[in-house]
Amino acid sequence: MTQSVDHETVVSRLLSADEILILCHKNPDGDTIGSGTALCLALQKLGKTAAVLCSDPIPAMYAFLPITVFDGSFTPHFVVAVDVAGIQLFGDRNNMPQYAEHVDLCIDHHGSNSGYAYETMLDDHAAATAELLTALIPEMGVEITPDIAACLYTGIATDTGCFRFTNTTAATHRAAAALIEAGADVENLNERLFECRSHARMAAERMALESLEFYYDNRCALICLTWDQIQAAGVAGAELEDLTSLPRSIEGVEVGLTLRQQKDGSYKISVRTGHDTNACNIARRLGGGGHPRAAGCEISGNLDNAKHAILDEVKKELDRSASLNAAES
Amino acid sequence: MTQSVDHETVVSRLLSADEILILCHKNPDGDTIGSGTALCLALQKLGKTAAVLCSDPIPAMYAFLPITVFDGSFTPHFVVAVDVAGIQLFGDRNNMPQYAEHVDLCIDHHGSNSGYAYETMLDDHAAATAELLTALIPEMGVEITPDIAACLYTGIATDTGCFRFTNTTAATHRAAAALIEAGADVENLNERLFECRSHARMAAERMALESLEFYYDNRCALICLTWDQIQAAGVAGAELEDLTSLPRSIEGVEVGLTLRQQKDGSYKISVRTGHDTNACNIARRLGGGGHPRAAGCEISGNLDNAKHAILDEVKKELDRSASLNAAES
Asked: What range(s) does the DDH domain occupy (chains A, B) (predicted)?
């Protein structure tokens, strides 16, 4: 079991360590890379040897961050994981066999953190690990430089959808203010992080919009992508995942459905709902599950069967919600 | 000429006034409505009679704000304009003939403010008029209630594209933090303001993506909408305007073009460029103009002619930028 530690302990551990390896999670996002790079820069400013390691390549959109990738040129004596909630999230550990097994310190904001590290600093009220580090780095006696500010802003902005997601708090905005004052060039960063859509993303959106259908007085919207379309567009995991929020985002839509055909022909269905209906109720009766506003299930058979089955469940849930509302009023 | 006034003077004017009419600008956005409603609530909390007036109807997406619309039930003795940069922006003044001519006080953040009011409090560093009011309302001795916070957050968030646009500063984030602490329900507000796309918007995006073409090694992207398509989709001004940022937002695109056919058959062309090229150079030689990164022109004749003419100018500008870059390196 991990030991829970406070800022003061973390600062003392980092200040007394050297040859520090910083581990990020697999499929790296802006928070794990931004936090890892910011911590690495801060440790280097203190004259320490430090580098960052991730099982997957750094995505092109984060290549502008001044990351020192671990190249084996030193033997790590202290291992810190940033934004990694569980040991399985290190990914394929071929390039870090011994390190991921003995993590000295974990700095994270995921309430689900499994406690795999020897010591853990966890704050699940923080919108991003980078929000924690915005406080921690000055406590290490390191001034936040424009480079460090850019890394931390990247972490916070990407984990909050640019301050749009529900994890955004007053403290998140205060951290952003401090980073802008420290020299984060938000014009440039926001353009890099949010104004650039990949060709694959555009292709995915086009496919989605062309397949858009409405049901039940426009209360339900559905998009459908066949395996062949997905292959032809060259659309990968994250772009497809993002599409699942599209149908629900349309004015007046309470239930948004995304049907994606799998290689074996079956349909993976994502269900997103508004405040009045329960996505899990819809998915559960088809053998799936999830959360009240985001759930999923899988249906084998052809498209007509899949649509028919899921739309039946949507109808039941819309009716249930309508009768509840009628009873209340 | 208007008198420029500071916070203290504005507070004293507002505290000594009563029967206050607050004017918003035409085609009202989140900032003018949010600011007007927040100021109205603050004045009402002080026991004053106040109401808000706009030449256009309040858009449905802002109908949730607790706005007191002026219904003629009192005779205004003090007129305040919020977020209105010039007298022509009051719009059709049929419902406010006498008031817009004699504005006692203007509170605004547009550097272009024409100074039409008797006194003006202007801060063009503020991202939104609502950012100014976040400081001003407590100075009036009024606590920011959750309702006022929701209005002011709406103004700031909409004017900054949810903290994405270049007008966003550290002060903007600090204002947002204060409003969240005062009770602005950002989960609910962000969903209302940013997660909801109109059917017309979806139709416009679909049209745009279906017409998307690339030129010059994908350095130029072009979308084209005919008059018939625009009519069929029922797409109005703001949704069409928003589309003009789409082609430039695609990975690797330096010049984004949007061609919109007008009723008379001519094409209105919007040019958006990245850091390396000048939109105004492109538009100017076709009789248009604008800014370095956003410009426009109009070309009569058929679509092939319009495309040919604008793409020729794009080519020249891309070549000019390439030779500049070559000379520098």
From this structure: 20-156
The CA distance from B65 to B193, in Å, is 12
| pLDDT tens digits, one per residue of B104-158 | 999 999 998 999 999 999 999 999 999 999 999 999 999 999 999 999 999 999 9
A174 inside 8 A of chain B by CB: yes
CA triplet A235, A236, A237: central angle to 5 degrees? Answer: 135
CA distances (Å), A265 to each of A231, A271, A309, B69, in order?
13, 19, 16, 56
Q: Are A170 and B164 an interchain contact pair (Cβ–Cβ within 8 Å)?
A: no
> SS3 for A275?
coil
Question: Phi and psi (nearest 5°) for A114?
Answer: -85, -10
CB contact under 8 A, B163 and A174: no
Q: Check if A322 contacts B (Cβ < 8 Å).
A: no
Q: Which domains does chain A possess?
A: 3-194 (3.90.1640.10), 199-328 (3.10.310.30)
Cross-chain CB nearest to B162 (options A164, A169, A177): A164
**CB atoms < 10 A from the CB of B150, how many?**
26
CA of A153 vs chain B CAs: smallest distance (Å): 12
A209 close to B (CB below 8 A): yes
Query: In this structure, are residues A7 and A135 in contact, taking their beta carbons and an 8 Å threshold?
Result: yes
Calculate how close chain B gets to A15, using CA atoms only, in Å: 30
Q: Per residue in A115-155, pLDDT tens?
A: 999 999 999 999 999 999 999 999 999 999 999 999 999 99
Q: Which has the closest alpha carbon to B105: B126, B70, B132, B141? A: B132
pLDDT in tens, B199-217: 888 888 888 889 999 999 9
